[in-house]
Every structure is written in C-alpha cells, then in structure tokens.
From TrEMBL, chain A:
Start and end residues of each ABC transmembrane type-1 domain: 103-318
Name of the molecule in the record: ABC transporter permease
Entries under Pfam families matching the protein: BPD_transp_1, BPD_transp_1_N
InterPro entries in UniProt: BPD_transp_1_N, MetI-like, MetI-like_sf
Organism per entry: Pelagibius litoralis
Transmembrane feature ranges: 15-36, 103-130, 142-171, 191-209, 249-275, 295-318
Membrane topology type: Multi-pass membrane protein
UniProtKB/TrEMBL annotation, chain B:
A GO molecular function held by the record: ATP hydrolysis activity
Species for this entry: Pelagibius litoralis
Keywords attached to this entry: ATP-binding, Cell membrane, Membrane, Nucleotide-binding, Transport
Protein name per the record: ABC transporter ATP-binding protein
Keyword Aminoacyl-tRNA synthetase among UniProt keywords: no
C-alpha cells in the first residue's frame, strides 16, 4: 500500500484514539476536585466574613452545587461541550477568557523550551558522539552533568542576578513592557527579549538530558550492522553519520521529548513564578490558594488537552522518522 | 594461477589481554576470478575477521592487521589510503552479511540504499540510477521491483531482504563478492534459493566469491575450493571435491564427523505406553485491526491448527518446520508457557490445558523444557547451582537434598562440580546448554521438550549435546519432544517426525519412512532443500 495513505490513516487513527482519552481526563479532573475539602461557597462565605447558612445554601443552589454528583458531572460535560468552562468568582470573569489569555504565554514558553532543548541537545549529543573521547566530548559531558544536577529555580535566580541585574542585558520579569505600548514587530521583539531567560532556565535541564541521550543513542547506533553495510558500500564517514546513524539515533530522543512535555508544564510553574511570566502555571498557583475550583478545572483541562495534542504531534513526527511504526 | 586476490601471511592482531595474540595467524589464501572459495570454520576461527580485513572493516584501532599483505590485482589493501579503500568498497569488492534485517538501514527505502552505491561510485543521472536499480532487483528475481524500490526493509521477508542485499552488492559489477554467512539466518528452502542465486550471479558476472560459512552442507553445494580455519590458522585448503571427500587434516576430519548424517538411524521398537497425547491443539494469535478500520489490517495467525501428536515412553518425537510454522508455539503450549485456545494436552491421562496455575504446579515437574538460546535462558545474576536446585525446592524438596542433587546432575551432564558456585557467563555456549539440560532434569521429568536446543551451537558442540541428550534419555527413560529446523539433526535424534507448516502437521511418521518416502509436497521440498544432500559426511570419513 502507498506509504502516504497509510500515514493519513495513522493520523486519523491517533486522532480517534485521543477522544476517549480527553473524555477520561475531563471526568477524572471533575472527581479529583470533588475530593478536596470545601467548595467555592465556603471560600466566598469565608471571605465575606459572615454568611448565614441560608445564604450559603442559596449560593450553592445558584451554582448548582446542591445537586447530586452525577448530575453535576453531566452538567459539567454539557457545559464543556459548548465551550463553557464556567465562571471564576474570584476573578469575576468567564474561565475560558481567563485561561485563553494565559494560554498563549504558556504555549510560547513551552514551544521555545522544547525547540531549544531538543535542538541543542541533539546538536551537542552529535558533537560529543562524533568526537568520542576527545576534549569536545569531555567538555560537553561535563556541561551536561552540571546542568543536569542544578536545580531549576536556582539557575533562574542566578541568570537574573548575572544577566539582568549586573549586566542589564535582559529584563528581570514579565512577558512584555506594557508601558511601552509596542505594536507589530516591535512587540514581537520585545516579547522575544523577555522570553530569553525563562526559556534558558526551563530548558537547561532537558537540554542536558537530551544531550546525554543523543550521545548514547548515536554510539549505540554506530555499532549496528547497517553501519557496517554502509561502510562496505564505500560511503564516507560523514555521510554514514549524518544520513544513516542520525535518523535512527533521533528516535529515542523524540520519544523522550514527547513523554516529557507533561513534566514541562509542571516545571513551568516554578519558572513562571521566578520570572513573573503570566502563564497557566502562575494562574494555577493562584487558583489553588483561592480555591477557585472552576478556574482550576479549566486549567487542568487545557493543560491536559495541550499534552494530548503535543503527544499527537510527536507521534506523527515519529511515524515520519520511523516507517516501522505504522505496521505495529 | 591468475589470482584476483592473494592473501599472504596475514596476521590480525587482537587487543592485549585477549585469549590469543592473533585472531588470524599467517593466513595464505588465493581467490581466482569466477571461483567460489568457501572459508569454513567454527565460531572464533577468525574466518569473519579475515573477510573484514579485505574490506578494511576491522574494528579499529583494537583489532588491526599486524603483518602480511592482501594483494588485490597488484594493490596491497593493507597499505592503501582510506580514500582509495572507500573507492574499492562497494564497486570492486562488495559484501553481504548474515542478518539481512539488521544489515539494512530500517528507516531508509531499499531504493535509496541501492542508489547510494551508484551515487558514490559512478557519475550518472538520477533516471539512469533508478533504471539500473530496477533492473538489479529484477535480476535477483524479486517480484515487482517498482514496489520494492519504495519499500522499507521491514516490509520484505528475510529471503527478499537478502536478495535486495545481493542486488546492492552487485550493483557495480564487483570483481569480488564477500559473503559472510549469508544464509545462516534463513530457512532451508530460502537458503537453497539464495545459494542458487549467488551461484547464478557469480557465473553471469565472472565474480570471485569469498564465501564464509560454518556449514559443510552449504560448502558441498556451492564451493569450488575450500579453506578450513581453526583458531586463526588455515589448516587445510584445496579443491572442494578433495577436501570434502578426502580431508587431510585431523581437525577437518573431526569437523566433518560431527556433521549429522542425513541417513536416519535405525528404528527402535516403539513402546505401547502413551506418555503424552496432544489432541486438536489450536492456538491463534490476533493483532492489528480495530478503530473503525483505521488501524493496521487485522492479522490472524493460526500458529497451531488442530495439532495432534502422540508420544510414547522412551521415544523422541521430532517436530520439524521452518520459521513461522508453529513448531515453537506447539512446544510452548505443551509446557503451558502459552495457553492454547482449544484441544487437549494429556500427560499420563490428565488434561493439562484447562488447569489453573496452582493445579498445574504438581504437573510442572513432569514436563520440562530446554530452550534454544543458552545465553539468554539462564539468569545471569544467579549461580549455576541455584538455577538447578531452584526447581526441586519450589516443588518442596529440602535445600540440602536439592543441593546434593544439583551437584550430582552437574556430573551427569559432564560439568565439573565446581560449576555449582559459578555464574552462567563464566561458561561457553555448549556448557551453558548442559546447565540448561541439568536444570530441566532436576525435576525428574517424564517428558523433556527441547526447543531447538542445538541451533545456536557450533557443529562439534552440537554433536556433544545431542549425544548427551541421547545418553540421558536412555538412562532416565525419558520421552522427548524435539523441535528443530535442521533435518540432519532430526535424522539423528528422532524416532518419529511431525512436519509442520502454517500451524498444521502436514505429515507424521517414523523418521526413516518420512525420509525415504515423503508423502507431502512440503516435506519433499524441505528434504530437497537440505544443503549438501548428495554429500555423505559420515560415509566419507568412515571410509578412511
């Protein structure tokens, strides 16, 4: 059969498989939050200082919190189907608007981090493997070991101290200079300027991981039989490395990157707070302490969808890299 | 002789601290155009390294040519520059390998892999390169070359992959083709086809072929001249007819004596007592499908379809067939490592198939298995003594008693008692298989199921293990189910044969009868494909 039509079938199949996963995530999120003590009415009443039990019951009835759980779940599912994520009482805004507002910032940070970590990780791993046991290999390995072992928040703080406070090259926090009212390309440049330090901070750990993985993977592949075949064909070492070994060696790195996207969102909470980056992580942090359950649910849902989507993309990339995947 | 290749006094040095200083020592070999030279030897004889040295493919810097010359049409291949060596590889000397799956790049189409040879050695436009690749694939008798060009290696069968490898190797009409065990990983019928193809291509192109193999049957089928290697030394060379029929060196003689003869051994009287009966055993594997027809096409493999077998006391029943015939599935179902879908497995009248885990346990001791790969089937972190004693202890034997038994068994399988406290990696393949046999025997089984127990071993070791199994069967009055793909081994070991194909038993009967008068077409094809069938190793050696 044609490879192209098979790929289309594969993508369709993976899309279909994502549907039950998303449904399961929604239901699990809902029940997870039900496990937590107290609800939004407790918080509102607590903040108001005094609230009669009658008033609280009235509030609960208004928000539908007095209904039995299954009814609440069905209601929730119905709302989600019409893209209604509920209302955040704390921010006094629809959750959808709030979340979408922050979504862009998180996706920006995530994508730039993945690109940096995978791109440079692959490059450094490649350089280390091609210069095995030379000073280049040693230097890269030491760099990877140090960055691997350093805690995220500390790196962030140190980068701020050195590059923002001492050298003044990059801004310390935020996503853009709001007071400057940049528009068009100026705004893009401004955001990119703000993006540099958070991206580096968040990607360093993964960069180290992918460097080591890529180096090991290259060395493993270089010992395979097909490399001997390539050599027996009279190919140059350069072509063997870059055409034969590289593509095979990339496979484990891509797999690993796909798995770690979820962890990346978790890790971004720290980085977002260090750099005051207005992303979902920050919002989740605030929502958690305000017991803004609707908002928290919305964030959970969106990040879960993000992970599912990224994994889908990774799988599709993987299937173009490895033709064997369609069969199994 | 007008030699194409003249290897003189070749020494290949191993890294310091190895078992011996040279992998290959003072090798002298010549190869003429239009000639097939077979280099035969067991593992570790240095035959593969000799072939790699020609191509400059030794794992440098640890293994290198220390002395000697490889004269290829006036050029010394040990002294030429890397650039010149690259020019020679693939265009003047090319090579095919043992494992056609791993020898091809899994993520590159066959067409691109063939194309690389043209691109690197000859200047020609893309169209011509593509046409040449198509012609090559047609030359090696691959069906539908236009489709194969776009296929990835995993989409082809083992035989097809090896054909594609041969097409790639012959792309630029090389003067020498080096074939390193090219048919070892293939089924016998496929092997016969590939050997025929190599001979055909060699005759059409006047290529000199250096053919590395461990199998004297293959040598008998294909060789013009033979060189026998042992521990890095070329002990004997000569025309094939001479070496095969009148070997001079003691090692050559012992190697040939170890090759099992195709003449079945005399039949023994059959016992009336049925030990194991398999009735209507069926096992189906399912894969793919699902997702509204978007998944991979559903694959339903009938690994065993209505298999019926009958094993009498003291008898060895051989199950022979090619890969995918379901012979291993049947073995694993009998021992209850896999669960059959339906049928009966009667051991002493008790049906084992429906038994649950706990109910099965007392019966486990009665039926034991010896596995194919002696390297993978022993836990590397467990001492040999424990491996053997574990079984009886699980069955409730006292620890001291189990230890005494394990030590006794080590003696029976021909190992030193000191092996008790060692780890599996300290032993050779043959010794490990002995440990595997001792482990199975520790439970005093009535039935021993041996799944290709000798196919990973060299012929001389294979011979020893087969003798050991025979001896033990006599001594303990064991009944054996012996799975093998090798009809030579089957002829020497089995009283009866069941020939399997696509999960079905196509023919069953006493070994001698099946060999002398095969009924099924497939059995005939199998017997016909046995390498070196016209050559009788036992007879020639015995005659001397």
């Amino acid at each position: 059969m044609d490879h192209f039509t098979r790929r289309i079938r594969y993508v369709l199949k993976r899309l279909l498989q994502a549907v039950p996963i998303v449904l399961a995530i929604i239901v699990m999120n809902f029940f997870l939050l039900q496990l937590a003590e107290g609800d939004a009415v407790d918080v509102l009443a607590g903040e108001a200082g005094s609230a009669t039990p009658e008033y609280m019951a009235e509030l609960r009835a208004k928000f539908g919190l007095d209904q039995p759980l299954p009814v609440q779940l069905v209601l929730y599912l119905k709302n989600i189907a019409s893209f209604d994520l509920g209302y955040s009482f704390r921010h006094e805004m629809p959750v959808l608007d709030l979340v979408l507002d922050r979504f862009f910032a998180t996706v920006l940070l995530m994508v730039s981090t993945i690109l940096l970590a995978v791109g440079f990780g692959v490059l450094l791993g490649l350089l280390a493997a091609t210069g095995l046991n030379t000073w280049r290999d040693t230097a890269i390995s030491i760099f990877a070991l140090i960055t691997y072992a350093t805690p995220l928040f500390w790196v962030g703080l140190m980068l701020i101290v050195v590059f923002s406070l001492t050298l003044g090259w990059f801004p310390t926090s935020g996503m853009e200079n709001i007071a400057a009212f940049h528009e068009g390309w100026d705004r893009v440049v401004d955001i990119a300027h703000h993006l540099v330090l958070p991206t580096i901070t968040l990607s360093l750990f993964y960069l180290a991981l992918y460097t080591r993985l890529m180096r090991a993977s290259m060395l493993e592949q270089a010992g395979q039989d097909y490399v001997t075949t390539a050599r027996a064909k009279g190919l140059t070492e350069r072509r063997i490395m870059f055409v034969h070994v590289l593509r095979n060696a990339l496979l484990p790195v891509v797999t690993m990157a796909g798995v770690q996207v979820g962890a990346l969102i978790g890790g971004s909470v720290i980085v977002e707070s260090v750099f005051a980056w207005p992303g979902l992580g920050m919002l989740a942090f605030e929502a958690l302490f305000a017991r803004d359950l609707n908002l928290l649910l919305g964030i959970f849902l969106l990040s879960a969808l993000l992970v599912v989507a990224v994994n889908l993309v990774v799988d599709i990339i993987y299937s173009t890299l490895d033709p064997r995947i369609e069969v199994s | 002789m007008n030699a194409l290749l003249d290897i003189r006094d070749l020494h290949i040095a191993l890294p310091e601290g190895s078992q011996r200083p040279y992998a290959v020592e003072a090798a002298d070999l010549q190869l003429a155009p239009n000639e097939i030279l077979c280099v035969v030897g067991e593992s570790g004889s240095g035959k593969s390294l000799t072939a790699r040295a020609l191509m400059g493919l030794l794992p440098k810097p640890h293994v290198r040519v220390a002395k000697g010359a490889i004269d290829f049409l006036g050029e010394d291949l040990t002294a030429v520059s890397d650039a010149r060596l690259r020019q020679i590889r693939g265009s003047e000397i090319s090579m095919i390998f043992q494992e056609p799956m791993t020898a091809l790049n899994p993520v590159m189409t066959i067409g691109r892999q063939i194309d690389e040879v043209f691109r690197f050695h000859a200047k020609m436009p893309g169209r011509e390169r593509r046409d040449r690749a198509l012609a090559l694939l047609a030359d090696v008798h691959l069906p539908n070359p236009a489709q194969i060009v776009r296929a990835y290696p995993h989409e082809l069968s083992g035989g097809q992959r090896q054909r594609a490898m041969i097409a790639m190797a012959l792309a630029l009409d090389p003067k020498i083709l080096i074939a390193d065990e090219p048919t070892t990983a293939l089924d016998v019928t496929t092997q016969a086809q590939i050997l025929k193809l190599i001979k055909e291509m060699q005759a059409a192109h006047n290529t000199g072929v250096l053919f590395i193999t461990h199998d004297f049957g293959v040598v008998a089928d294909i060789a013009d001249r033979v060189a026998v290697m042992q521990n890095g030394l070329v002990v004997e060379t000569g025309p094939a007819a001479e070496v095969l029929n009148a070997p001079q060196h003691a090692y050559t003689k012992s190697l040939m004596a170890a090759v099992p003869s195709l003449t079945p051994r005399p039949a023994r009287p059959r016992s009336e007592e049925r030990v194991l009966e398999v009735k209507g055993l069926t096992k189906t594997y399912r894969g793919g499908g699902g997702f509204f027809g978007l998944g991979a096409p559903a694959r339903i493999v009938k690994a065993a379809a209505d298999v019926t077998l009958d094993l009498r006391r003291g008898e060895t029943l051989g199950i022979v067939g090619e890969s995918g015939s379901g012979k291993s599935t049947v073995a694993r179902c009998i021992v209850r490592l896999n669960d059959a879908d339906s049928g009966e497995i009667l051991l002493d009248g008790v049906d084992l198939r429906p038994l649950a885990r706990a109910a099965m346990r007392p019966h486990r001791a009665k039926i034991q298995m010896v596995f194919q790969d002696p390297y993978a089937s022993l836990n590397p972190r467990t001492r040999v003594g424990r491996i053997i004693a574990q079984g009886p202890m699980i069955q409730g034997m006292d620890a001291a008693e189990a230890e005494a038994k394990a030590r006794e068994l080590l003696g029976i399988v021909g190992l030193d008692e000191r092996a008790y406290d060692r780890f599996p990696h300290e032993f050779s393949g043959g010794q490990r298989q002995r440990i595997g046999v001792a482990r199975a025997l520790a439970l005093e089984p009535e039935v021993l199921v041996a799944d290709e127990p000798v196919s990973a071993l060299d012929v001389s070791i294979q011979d020893q293990i087969l003798k050991l199994l025979d001896e033990i069967r006599e001594r303990m009055n064991l009944s054996m189910v012996f799975i093998t793909h090798d009809l030579r081994v089957a002829a020497q070991v089995c009283d009866r044969l069941a020939v399997m194909r696509y999960g079905k038993v196509v023919e069953e009967g006493p070994t001698a009868a099946v060999f002398a008068d095969p009924q099924d077409d497939y059995t005939k094809a199998l017997l016909d494909a046995v390498p070196g069938k016209s050559w009788l190793p036992g007879a020639t050696v015995a005659a001397q």
